[in-house]
Write a structure and sequence with these properties.
Length: 311
């Protein structure tokens, strides 16, 4: 009896094990089928993506070719347009177009044009007025800004001037001179220039103020010494030759004797303007230095008349 029970127990265990393995096999088969289905779907999706990627790459290559071709056409067209463009010059428009008070000039050329902004008297020149399109009020503002700059600079020079002894050990009535030692104004001059730039920007705007920088720098050089940012000795000299001729000079010397510049000073008789606006001079009127003469810019130190009477 016990053996029969043992055999039944063994049979039931074997049957349970068989049923468990069959159930596990069915589950595994189902999971495998699911995974295979997902793999198939993924492969299909990947194939579709690869197809779209290949199509996009082909389209990108076609567009790149089109862009390259269009860029080449645009460059060729631009070069043709540049060659066809005519700049205003005497060959195309003449000195001035017939019947016109102006001629066209692109703004981009203004910075390359050399012009004088101010006359020696501080008035804006005709070319500056025309090139920059200055209105009457802007001309006045430009003149006033420059006049204030020049006055402030000359005041600094006058206050820094130190009278120097005559170069002649024995006074010579035929070779008089007046000499001053001037400071280089290395700190003051940059500040004055900044103030002038601010005034110009307020008066005519930043673009035109920028265009005036180089022409005005030339005018500033007329007001400062040719020695540069160094102390120097400026002298006003006259010489009477044996034949009675008289010559005047303005001389700049570095204090260390390393350089010297000398300029001839011219004079003219200044008459009073008459009703026609013209200055008529007579022999009774005194000689004075002419506008633009080197001495003109140093009248605040030496005056404007000859040291020796002119013949």
């Amino acid at each position: 009896m016990s053996q029969f029970l043992i055999a039944c127990f063994v049979f039931m265990a074997a049957l349970a094990a068989t049923l468990h393995h069959r159930q596990a096999a069915r589950i595994a088969a189902t999971e495998l089928a699911r995974l295979q289905a997902e793999q198939s779907a993924a492969n299909s999706t990947l194939a579709s993506f690869q197809t779209r990627t290949a199509a996009s790459a082909k389209r990108h290559a076609e567009l790149s070719l089109d862009l390259t071709a269009a860029s080449a056409e645009l460059k060729a067209a631009s070069e043709v347009a540049l060659r066809a463009r005519t700049e205003p010059d005497p060959a195309t428009e003449g000195a001035w177009p017939t019947g016109k008070p102006y001629f066209y000039l692109p703004k981009r050329l203004l910075s390359d044009i050399g012009f004088t902004a101010l006359g020696a008297d501080g008035e804006p020149t005709l070319e500056a007025i025309a090139l920059l399109g200055l209105t009457p009020s802007e001309r006045d503002n430009l003149h006033d800004a420059w006049a204030d700059f020049r006055f402030d600079l000359q005041e600094l020079q006058r206050h820094s001037a130190e009278r120097m002894p005559d170069t002649n050990s024995v006074p010579d009535p035929n070779r008089p001179s007046i000499r001053f030692k001037l400071s280089g104004l290395t700190n003051q001059l940059p500040r004055l220039r900044e103030q002038l730039d601010v005034r110009l920007t307020e008066a005519i705007g930043p673009t035109r103020a920028q265009l005036l920088q180089t022409p005005l720098e030339n005018r500033i050089e007329d007001l400062t010494t040719p020695i540069g940012d160094r102390d120097c000795i400026v002298g006003y000299h006259a010489e009477r030759a044996a034949d009675g001729t008289v010559q005047h000079y303005l001389r700049f010397e570095a204090t260390d004797g390393s350089s010297m510049h000398q300029y001839v000073v011219d004079f003219m008789r200044w008459g009073q303007p008459t009703s026609d606006g013209v200055s008529h001079s007579t022999a009774k009127e005194p000689y004075r230095t002419s506008v633009g003469s080197p001495l003109w810019h140093y009248r605040h130190l030496f005056g404007d008349q000859p040291l020796l009477p002119l013949p």
